[in-house]
């Protein structure tokens, strides 16, 4: 979608906006998509309104306020003051909603890039919906952690407080359809190639391998958005990483690796891994939430995040009880730090047999 | 499509690349789309190979060489030297094709932004495929005209030499479908609005008008890519502008307005205007092409550009012989100068009646 006519980026935000990151957030259309996500809404609403005692009389910062919904709930929960910071001109709609919902004496909407804001005071609590695909895509946690370090009082609370990134082996329907697409593209290149020579006198055969590699990267080595069914999961889910938002640093999130182990639960063709996240709202150590809330995006949870699928090509034949062990590496892409690289190094072993096949290294982009 | 892993922008290009303009050109997939466009290919191939006498022994510059196809043809036509300048890493594939087609002694591929190149000599002829939707979208003519002013010898030739931007009144099938989409979005907002109040305690009614305006801008006031049939054209085509590439300036192209007049040829509902372009390859005044070529993108011509459709909402009832008169303004968008604004000011008159209805002003974005 094109930028709405009104959108103007704050100076300073532009350099960080290589992928036109902010543009879509300037649309009500896109904010509405998020506001219609019932899993997301229920979790944040309960986290705030069912833990109103943690908000009462507090100074709250909403990082990336969008339409202002979290700020309005914080005000309803009894906050004394809420700073709602939003980079795009959506801030102007947030201001309208704040007014229309009668919380204008509590909520102050600030239009601008979080990192460039000066607040008149430190805050007791930061609330933010910053999660992207595979938790870390969009790298908005950068802004949330910077806001925490600059504006949160010592001992203050983060909502959400914890985040968990998980994966599991899959037998996914996506595999067959992407592979068919890949084959189709490669065969179309063949026809194109003949036409270039016969019709245009130009030999493009030397590019066939490059074209196939480009399509492979795009169709088979880029993570796919997908609504997984539980039946596609064929082994233990494993943890890729866990963060306490009160203490984690940008550096830890920007690049890390973890070893994993997963036991296969059925005889199947392992043709993918799935990835998703959960976030918990537990409050702070000093002031735990009386009603902790979890927002899950696991298979069948039906949020707008759905899950990410990483294809394993060629696939592996696995049996109940087989073990997968290896290392997952997650890092930002160099050219656009809001996007990710994921690398899986993998060995497959079977009781009584030992290692099955060679170690595999799989590389993926999350674009 | 995401950027291919290899793509790195030249320093300097980045500031001009707000819309990630260059990213897609780094893909063979996208270059293939252009190479498969038979109308485009036939016109350029004939313009070069059927006018080989104009290329023989000449020094040629190919601005935005992509896969290098035009440079290879120029070499086949007998050019002494061809400089193929390409901003993206596609230049590396161009170098491979040049080699594989045996013209490496003639064609020098230079990877980098045209404006940042130093050539060892001035050139006799510039060839370039720079046209975007509605001719001017992408604003690549900037780079072509800058190259002309800096590198073309006095009296040198531009291929293409002339460009024509045209419009005509339509009765288009697109109108009904876009209007239905608009109505659907507005009615969905209504349901969303109720759910926000009942389920989340937040009143979003105040944003209804803003949402409708946003959807209107997107669905009804943005030009649409469309393959028009001749039967959708219901009146005289008119000229929006004509350029001689040898003399036109960036300033003239960046913003202009023209008056127009179109006589209606059938009783119909005028619900849109169509826009398209032709380019001519006539050679220079000093050395006219012996076989001039025209590349047309008019309705039914089936190039990848197709046509642009600008909806007229609400539509106008017109009769055979009615006259439309007015002014078309074309300008770059402020935020992204590669995109366009189009404004039509319009009066409708009928013999024996005079002016029918008030003057209308219609605004469109080409995104
Ligand atoms: N550094 C930053 N400063 C200010 N706003 C930011 C930001 N990074 C992201 N944002 C904004 O954060 C929002 C994230 S989407 C969440 C919107 C809203 N809080 C809700 O829950 O519905 C977007 O509107 C985006 O424009
Ligand atoms: N200022 C500039 N400098 C160098 N290359 C440019 C440029 N502006 C656009 N380009 C390149 O110009 C190409 C236009 S598409 C045409 C490609 C090729 N000449 C063909 O006819 O098939 C793209 O590959 C784009 O990357």
Automatic annotation (TrEMBL), chains A, B:
SUPFAM superfamilies: S-adenosyl-L-methionine-dependent methyltransferases. GO terms for biological process: methylation. PANTHER family: PROTEIN ARGININE N-METHYLTRANSFERASE, PROTEIN ARGININE N-METHYLTRANSFERASE PRMT10. The keyword Transferase applies. Pfam families: PrmA, PRMT_C. InterPro entries: Arg_MeTrfase, PRMT_dom, SAM-dependent_MTases_sf. This is Protein arginine n-methyltransferase. The keyword rRNA-binding does not apply. Keywords: Methyltransferase, S-adenosyl-L-methionine, Transferase. It comes from Chrysochromulina tobinii. GO terms for cellular component: nucleus. Residues 209-346 form the Protein arginine N-methyltransferase domain. GO terms for molecular function: histone methyltransferase activity; protein-arginine N-methyltransferase activity.
């Amino acid at each position: 979608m094109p930028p709405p006519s009104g959108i103007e980026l704050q100076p300073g935000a532009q350099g960080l906006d290589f992928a036109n990151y902010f543009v879509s957030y300037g649309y009500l259309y896109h904010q509405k998509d998020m506001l219609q996500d019932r899993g997301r809404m229920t979790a944040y609403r309960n986290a705030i309104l069912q833990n109103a005692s943690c908000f009462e009389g507090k100074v709250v910062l909403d990082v990336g306020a969008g339409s202002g919904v979290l700020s309005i709930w914080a005000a309803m929960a009894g906050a004394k003051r809420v700073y709602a910071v939003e980079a795009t001109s959506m801030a102007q709609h947030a201001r309208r909603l704040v007014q229309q919902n009668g919380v204008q004496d509590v909520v102050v909407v600030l239009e601008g890039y979080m990192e460039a804001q000066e607040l008149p005071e430190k805050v007791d609590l930061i609330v933010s919906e910053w999660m992207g695909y595979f938790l870390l895509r969009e790298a908005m946690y950068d802004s949330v952690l910077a806001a925490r370090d600059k504006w949160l009082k010592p001992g203050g609370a983060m909502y959400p407080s914890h985040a968990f990134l998980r994966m599991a082996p899959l037998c996914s329907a996506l595999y067959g359809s992407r592979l068919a697409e890949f084959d189709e593209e490669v065969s179309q290149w063949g026809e194109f190639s003949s036409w270039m020579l016969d019709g245009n006198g130009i030999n493009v055969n030397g590019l066939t391998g490059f074209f196939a590699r480009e399509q492979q990267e795009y169709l088979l080595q880029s993570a796919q958005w997908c609504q997984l069914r539980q039946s596609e999961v064929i082994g233990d889910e494993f943890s890729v990483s866990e963060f306490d938002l009160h203490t984690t640093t940008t550096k830890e999130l920007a690049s890390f690796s973890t070893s994993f182990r997963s036991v296969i639960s059925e005889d199947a063709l392992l043709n993918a891994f799935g990835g998703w996240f959960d976030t918990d709202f537990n409050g702070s150590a000093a002031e735990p939430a009386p009603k902790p809330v979890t927002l899950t995006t696991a298979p069948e949870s039906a949020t707008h995040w759905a899950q990410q699928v990483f294809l394993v090509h060629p696939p592996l034949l696995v049996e109940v009880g087989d073990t997968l062990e290896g290392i997952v590496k997650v890092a930002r892409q160099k050219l656009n730090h809001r996007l990710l690289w994921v690398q899986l190094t993998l060995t497959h072993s079977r009781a009584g047999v030992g290692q099955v096949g060679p170690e595999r290294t799989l590389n993926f982009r999350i674009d």
